[in-house]
């Protein structure tokens, strides 16, 4: 379970980016975070895995307070936090298998990491996960030879190789076409259920948040102003989060667009 209490992030003497935020995520729930640019969505995810240092507050993952950790303790804790980025963050000159196995770097010795001599159990798990997401036939292909959707699947598998206790995804579909975006969101939804893994997704596409997540958290000016199910995410919630302005989502639709039917294109 992830439990965030009174989280604040401030840069210098400027207005806080996050203002006393409280959030709990548990079970196999898929939670989307929506809001206009500058609302604090990405900062929230980066505070959780300590890519950004919180100014104050608590971030607990299964009882372990991440804010207090330093050095080796922090590195060990980060192994349990999978992260999927908008830009994939793959090493293009390496193969798909090598990129996937890099998810085990926090678990193997320096010698094994440098020589890329991973235990057979790690290799077997990598093949199993790649087969699950449909990229096992690309195992020996260089990452820069893949499409955007294929690259994001590699990134998802790499995160799962960490055996995470939570998966964070920072705009995982922003660089993808509409059809591929739906496939990636559907995959994250399915993996959360299969692995009993909580998933926290920062996303601009409100339609996809409604279709593929169990819970929507709406942020504005660093504060959480909505927390509920997709059916409760109505026009009043949209107006509160976006200020009543018709802001386009990442697929060119307005945020006032009704939820798409299951299987329909976005």
TrEMBL record:
One of its GO terms (cellular component) is plasma membrane. The keyword Secreted does not apply. It is found in: Cell inner membrane. It is a peripheral membrane protein. Pfam families: ABC_tran. Its main location: membrane. Residues 246-266 are annotated as: Disordered. InterPro entries: AAA+_ATPase, ABC_transporter-like_ATP-bd, ABC_transporter-like_CS, ABC_transpr_PhnC, MetN_ABC_transporter-like, P-loop_NTPase. Residues 2-246 form the ABC transporter domain. Keywords: ATP-binding, Cell membrane, Membrane, Nucleotide-binding, Translocase, Transport. One of its GO terms (molecular function) is ATP binding. This is Phosphonates import ATP-binding protein PhnC.
């Amino acid at each position: 379970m992830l439990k965030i209490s009174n989280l604040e992030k401030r840069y210098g003497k400027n207005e806080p980016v996050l203002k006393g935020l409280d959030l709990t995520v548990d079970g196999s729930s898929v939670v989307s975070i929506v809001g206009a640019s500058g609302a604090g969505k990405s900062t929230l995810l980066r505070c959780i895995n300590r890519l950004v240092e919180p100014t104050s507050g608590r971030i607990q993952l299964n009882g372990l307070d991440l804010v207090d950790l330093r050095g080796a303790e922090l590195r060990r804790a980060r192994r349990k936090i999978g992260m999927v980025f908008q830009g994939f963050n793959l090493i293009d000159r390496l193969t798909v298998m090598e990129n996937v196995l890099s998810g085990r770097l926090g678990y193997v010795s320096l010698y094994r990491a440098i020589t890329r001599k991973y235990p057979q159990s790690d290799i077997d798990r990598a093949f199993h996960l790649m087969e699950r997401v449909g990229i096992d036939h690309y195992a020996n292909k260089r990452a820069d030879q893949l499409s955007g959707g294929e690259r994001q699947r590699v990134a998802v598998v790499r995160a799962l190789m960490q055996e995470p206790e939570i998966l964070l995804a920072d705009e995982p579909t922003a660089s993808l076409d509409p059809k591929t975006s739906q496939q990636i969101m559907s995959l994250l939804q399915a993996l959360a259920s299969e692995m009993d893994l909580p998933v926290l997704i920062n996303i601009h596409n409100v339609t996809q948040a409604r279709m593929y997540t169990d819970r929507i958290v709406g942020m504005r000016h660093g504060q959480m102003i909505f927390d509920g199910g997709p059916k409760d995410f109505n026009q009043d919630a949209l107006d509160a989060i976006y200020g009543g302005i018709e802001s386009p989502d990442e697929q060119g639709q307005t945020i006032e667009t009704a939820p798409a039917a299951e299987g329909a294109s976005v």
